Amino acid sequence: MTMSEQELRAAPESEYMSANQLAFFSFLIKTQLAEAEARHRQNVLDNTEHEHEADPIDRASQEEVHQAALLARGRDVKLIKQLQDALARIKRENYGYCEDTGEPIGLGRLLAQPAARLSVEAQHRRELLGRQYQLAA
């Protein structure tokens, strides 16, 4: 049995990414992955049905809806990939540590975004560098 979120938050810092914590996040990520995959499959089915049902005259008005659905499917695919990558990091036992600094990402951030690869500070630095690069281009 995996630990609860309350037990996770109450654990001492020395327990960071212990086997119990990795099991907790593995369960959380697998649950989110199953939900994302089911949502993606349903979105694909829904779009396919609507495309076949659409009257040729209505197709133009449905194009905007179709574009929004494509964006949602793209987000789902990206999330699925991120969650799969997080599970791979759990297996390699380097989950929960920032890819840039090697420092702990932190339980709060991982609970909010289990697929996080960077600490808040490292993510902020990357975003600032990205903006600076865009402004220079």
Biggest sheet record = none
Mean pLDDT, all residues: 87
Query: Low-confidence spans: pLDDT under 50, at least 5 residues?
Result: none
Rg to the nearest angstrom?
20 Å
Please report the number of helical segments.
5
SSE pattern = HHHHH
CATH C-level category = Mainly Alpha
Q: What structural category do the secondary elements indicate? A: mainly alpha
- CATH fold-type name: Four Helix Bundle (Hemerythrin (Met), subunit A)
Q: Roughly how many Å apart are the termini? A: 52 Å
Count of distinct structural domains: 1
Task: Walk me through what this model shows.
- It is a single chain.
- The protein has a single domain, classed as Four Helix Bundle (Hemerythrin (Met), subunit A).
- The chain has five helices and no strands.
- Helix 2 packs antiparallel against helix 3.
- The mean pLDDT is 87.
- The protein is an all-alpha fold.
Quick rundown:
The protein has a single domain, classed as Four Helix Bundle (Hemerythrin (Met), subunit A), CATH 1.20.120.
Features:
single chain, 137 residues, mainly alpha, Four Helix Bundle (Hemerythrin (Met), subunit A), 0% strand, flat
Write the layout of secondary structure elements.
Elements: H1 5-10, H2 19-53, H3 59-92, H4 107-112, H5 120-136
